[in-house]
Amino acid sequence: MAKSESSGDTGRPWQSYHTVYTNAKAGMEGVDKEKVQRIVYEMSKGSKYFENEERKEAYIKQKIENMQDQIAKLTDADISHYQKVADKRILELEATRDLTRIWLHVDMDAFYAAVETLSNPSLNGKPMAVGSMSMISTANYEARRFGVRAAMPGFIARKLCPELIFVPVDFKKYTHYSDLTRKVFQNYDPNFMAASLDEAYLDITNACYERDATGGEIAEELRKSVYEETGLTCSAGVGPNRLLAKVCSDINKPNGQFVLPNDRMAVMAFISSLPIRKIGGIGKVTEHLLRDAFGIVTCEEMLQNSGFLCALFSRSSADFFLSVGLGLGRTDTPEVKLRKSISNERTFSATDDEAFLYQKLADLAEMLSVDMKKEGLCGRTLTLKLKTASFEVRTRAVTLQKYIFSSEDILKHASKLLKAELPISLRLIGMRMSQFSEDKDGTPSDPTQKTLSNFIVTGDATGSNMDDRTPFGSDLKDEHFRTQLKASLPIDNHKLCHSDFRDPLESSEIPDAGNCNCILSYDGEMKKCDGALNKSKANFEGSSLDNVDKRTSLPNDEAVSSSNQKEQYLWVDDYKCLLCGVELPPSFVEERQEHSDFHLAERLQKEESSNLRNLTPKQRFIPTDKITSPSQNRRKKHKSSSTGKYLPIDTFFVKSNRNS
DNA sequence: GGGAAAACATTAT
DNA sequence: TTCCAATAATGTTTTCCC
């Protein structure tokens, strides 16, 4: 943390350059923070990266000032109102406190670095970092003493520690060791939650009971067992929920553990003086904001400022902050964790060479398609991520009417998105696919269809499933709505939140499963369907609808792209539509594509309506907005990027309940 | 005005 | 010499369209 908050001390400019590198981390106790700060600053100063950081910093400052203004404007009546709101909410949250589970968080010590040392013992005792000159993934404890740490670029690390040894990342190795640790975890909680290769959460309640052991004893035993199996040390935290267990595992790192008893008094005492930055989900920005706008530094102060928090933040953010103040966290084990997106991105030296950029795009599309096929995924939202030479990040997205997975389809749409941004000098391109077909959480493929499972979002101990953007204070008057909501749900929503709620219609009987190269087997796993790929390439000649999504009944892109030949003879004399007579010359490629889409949609709709009585109610649903006419479906024109302008911010946002 | 999609931002490993 | 990553999730704000 920088010592001087308000800049203006010109003698030490580095003190106002806020990096994450001086934040307290295990193994960095004896570090000369002032020196690290200065070197990081000097290495960065004047770079494009630095300039971008300054832009971001100014943006945050603006946010803080805005919030301070809002606080200043609160009347006594406002304050008293929001305090009532807060007090009520605190009681409600307190009522959800669950002290019946014992959670353990395991965190491998300097995992990648430790694995590398294991396979090359000569590294032992020397400062070493896993990563490259541009980025470090993990630093061992010897290197940390120099201020070298994860997420720091290698060239700065070398400046801090000239003898630093660099070892390239080798995920195969880490995965192997990770698997070994997980075999151990399995013995204590078969449903343990892996947070990453080197971290996991275990509900050890049953293990304690079965072995007649305390949480601390189980932690000791587990750590010993991990060491025996792998030769690697880890640290553990034991607490009544995941959020607290995670905080605890950091306390006696490395190779140590800390137990927080399942006792309300103990929890409150523990939390009271804990800096908010120790909480997972509170990062540099939130820490900064809460400190400068509210004077909040410790978790206890969240409660002391509860009224203001409720007045200024969205409901979900305020709930999260209050939960932190109470030391609450998740205690349930979600049945399955579904992937929501899949992405890749690559950094390169900045260029505006369009041929190069398109080639990168093609490479990424190919890689992404391979990854998607591996997991049997098809998605309908494609997001292009661009980082300009000046580190400005832009995202451009399209949501298609058809689920895609092939590199050709991905590239086709990604190219369109990129094209709209040219000319541009980029240093990174990335792409992400989301909105998967048959999301395993029971969300129907048809995104417009509302079902109960759509309505009930997630398991949420805080009961904050309602519109987050509703100002928190308004919920006192919304009691009526809440009651209605509850009454409309036949079952306690905690029971329904997990994926055990599945519509039988979503099983493998889905008629168009072949359309996306994957089927959903009964156990909810995506299984690759051999031959589906070829099948989906088949055209729709002879009005066969085999390859077309019958639920959405759309002029899908796959069909269109595979029907280019068909598209040819839709045009009489090469410019006049055979079906409606509209005239479009061959050079109007996109327009013609859209036009044929339109006729296809028409046709499908007709066929669909004649088939309706044979389908289940769910399959019958044809969203009318999906029947696009040529004039709809036009690509939206992006306004020029608004980045760089600092607009007044009315509210701030923080993710809530992110204590995974 | 409201809902969906897009854009932007934060966090974590 | 080199000059700030990749992946995923989630939340807020803005834009678009009906």
**Oligomerization status of the protein chains:** single chain
* Rg: 28 Å
Low-confidence runs of at least 5 consecutive residues: 1-9, 439-471, 473-569, 604-660
* Morphology: globular
Describe the largest sheet: 5 strands, mixed
Task: Give the count of helical stretches.
Answer: 25
Q: What structural class do helix, strand and pairing data support?
A: alpha+beta
**CATH homologous superfamily of the domain at 339-456 and 497-537?**
DNA polymerase, Y-family, little finger domain
The count of strands amounts to 16
CATH architecture of the domain at 339-456 and 497-537: 2-Layer Sandwich
Adjacency order of strands in the biggest sheet: 5-6-1-7-8
The first-level CATH class name of the domain at 339-456 and 497-537: Alpha Beta
Helix percentage range: 40-55%
CATH topology assignment of the domain at 339-456 and 497-537: Dna Ligase, domain 1
Mean pLDDT reading: 74
Strand content: 5-15%
N-to-C span: 25 Å
Can you give a write-up of this model?
- This protein has 660 residues and is an alpha+beta fold.
- Among the domains are: 126 residues, Alpha-Beta Plaits (2-Layer Sandwich), CATH 3.30.70; 159 residues, DNA polymerase, Y-family, little finger domain (Dna Ligase, domain 1), CATH 3.30.1490.100; 87 residues, no CATH class.
- The chain contains 25 helices and 16 strands.
- The protein has a 5-stranded mixed β-sheet with strand order 5-6-1-7-8. It has a 4-stranded antiparallel β-sheet with strand order 9-12-10-11, covered by helices on one side. It has a 3-stranded mixed β-sheet with strand order 3-2-4.
- A hairpin with a 4-residue loop joins strand 2 and strand 3.
- The radius of gyration is 28 Å and the shape is globular.
- The protein binds a DNA duplex (13 and 18 nucleotides) through helix 2, strand 3, helix 6, helix 12 and strand 9.
